[in-house]
Structures are given as structure tokens and as C-alpha cells.
Design a protein that fits this description.
The protein is α+β, with helices and mostly antiparallel strands. The chain has one domain: Electron Transport, Fmn-binding Protein, Chain A (Pnp Oxidase, Chain A). It has 4 helices and 13 strands. The strands form 3 sheets. A 7-stranded antiparallel beta sheet has the order 3-2-6-9-10-5-4. The protein has a 4-stranded antiparallel beta sheet with strand order 1-11-12-13, with no helix packed on it. It has a two-stranded antiparallel sheet with strand order 7-8. β4 and β5 form a beta hairpin. The longest helix is centred in the N-terminal third of the chain and has 9 residues. It starts with 14 loop residues before the first strand and ends in an 11-residue tail after the last strand. The protein binds flavin mononucleotide. Flavin mononucleotide binds next to β3, β5 and α1.
């Protein structure tokens, strides 16, 4: 195989999407969209998450050291796309309302419409030049009980959950279907 060299890119790293839920100084829930997220192992499962630049989510996590990570599904995509393209301090984001509930173990906002949510506690902040990596303990995993009460995972359950993946500035379904460019699904939202 003959190869070409490329500059650094994330075009060849399909990623899973999560909405991070935090509370601001007034106790109002804020959600931002994030893909720099993966598992780590340190005797038990943990999570590493990278946030780049200044944003409300980052400030809130710094103050409280906890957040929820809500897996983005195809059904949630228009809302998730909006929350990823609208800064937390903008009036547009503050005006949008959707159903949330409190985490079971940590004081974090959880999206009611999300079938899989991690309740995360930051154990270590690793500051970088512009961004920051957070190493987190998974304090709880919430999963839609209509998918079964035995707690096991399966290909069928994942297909039913239909998580969204992203690369090349586009969204893709679990089965690989192209779900549109960043900024497109949010146009289907009717309540903004
Ligand atoms: C598809 C997608 C993925 C994103 N992933 C990240 C990410 O991993 N890290 C990051 O810092 N920002 C990421 N963003 C940008 C944030 O979602 C965006 O800055 C958002 O406004 C943050 O919300 P907040 O201002 O309420 O904190 C992503 C945006 C999109 C559309």
C-alpha cells in the first residue's frame, strides 16, 4: 500500500457524541455537545474528556467538579446540534426549554429523553495550552429501563438506542447513514 502524509485531522476518527449537563451559578441547567470523550482504565472504568477554549460547560465543571454525559441518539440529534452550535451564555440557548431531571448519585442535570447517561466526577484536571483534559470517575450509569432490567448490553440494544457518530463535520447513524452536516439537523427544531 502506498500512502500520503496529511496534517493533523480528526477526519479519520469517527467519534461518539455526548451532551454534557452542568448547573450554572443560578442553578439553571446548561447542556453543550462534545465528542472528545472516551473510556480509560484505572482498576475500574473511567472517562477522559477534553474541552477546548472558553465555554460555560467548562466554567461550570471547574466550579462543581461534576457533570452528566448524555449519549446523543438519532432522535435527540436536532436538539444536540442546536446545543453544540449555540453558546451557553447566549439568549437563544437560555430560551430553549426541555425536560431534565436530577442525577441519582450526583447533583447533575440529566436529559429525560436520553436513554443512556453517565454521572461523572472529575478526579483530575490536566491543563493544556488552550484546552483541558478531565479524568473522571463514573459514579453512575442511567439506562432506559424499557431496554430491559438485567443491565447487560447487546448489539440489539445499541441498534434500538441508535447513537450518533461524527466525523468530517457531519453526523452519521449507527448503521452508517449520513445524517447531515453540523448545523443542519437543528433546522428541524420547532421550539427555537
Ligand atoms: C458535533 C460537535 C462536537 C463538539 N465537540 C466538542 C468537544 O469535544 N470539545 C469542545 O470543547 N467543544 C465541542 N463542541 C463545541 C461545543 O458544543 C460548543 O462550544 C457549545 O456551545 C458549548 O456549550 P456551552 O457554551 O453551553 O458550554 C462541539 C460542537 C459540535 C457541533
Amino acid at each position: 500500500m502506498s500512502k500520503i502524509s496529511l496534517p493533523p485531522t480528526n477526519d479519520y476518527c469517527p467519534q461518539t457524541l455526548f451532551l454534557y449537563g452542568t448547573y450554572d451559578d443560578e442553578g439553571k441547567p446548561d447542556f453543550g455537545l462534545f465528542c472528545w470523550f472516551s473510556y480509560i482504565w484505572d482498576g475500574d472504568y473511567g472517562v477522559m474528556a477534553c474541552i477546548g477554549g472558553e465555554k460555560l460547560t467548562r466554567d461550570n465543571i471547574h466550579k462543581r467538579k461534576v457533570f452528566s454525559a448524555n449519549l446523543v441518539t438519532e432522535e435527540m440529534l436536532p436538539l444536540a446540534d442546536f446545543l453544540g452550535n449555540t453558546p451557553g451564555r447566549s439568549p437563544e440557548k437560555a430560551a430553549l426549554s426541555f425536560d431534565t431531571e436530577e442525577g441519582r448519585v450526583l447533583p447533575v442535570p440529566v436529559l429525560k429523553a436520553c436513554p443512556v447517561t453517565f454521572e461523572l466526577e472529575v478526579k483530575q484536571f490536566v491543563p493544556l495550552h488552550d484546552g483541558e483534559v478531565m479524568l473522571c470517575t463514573i459514579r453512575n450509569v442511567l439506562r432506559d429501563e424499557t431496554l430491559g432490567t438485567d443491565g447487560s448490553g447487546s448489539p440489539e440494544k445499541l441498534a434500538a438506542i441508535a447513537p450518533v457518530r461524527t466525523t468530517c463535520n457531519r453526523y452519521f447513524g449507527w448503521d452508517g447513514r449520513d445524517l447531515g452536516a453540523w448545523g443542519e439537523p437543528m433546522k428541524r427544531l420547532t421550539n427555537v
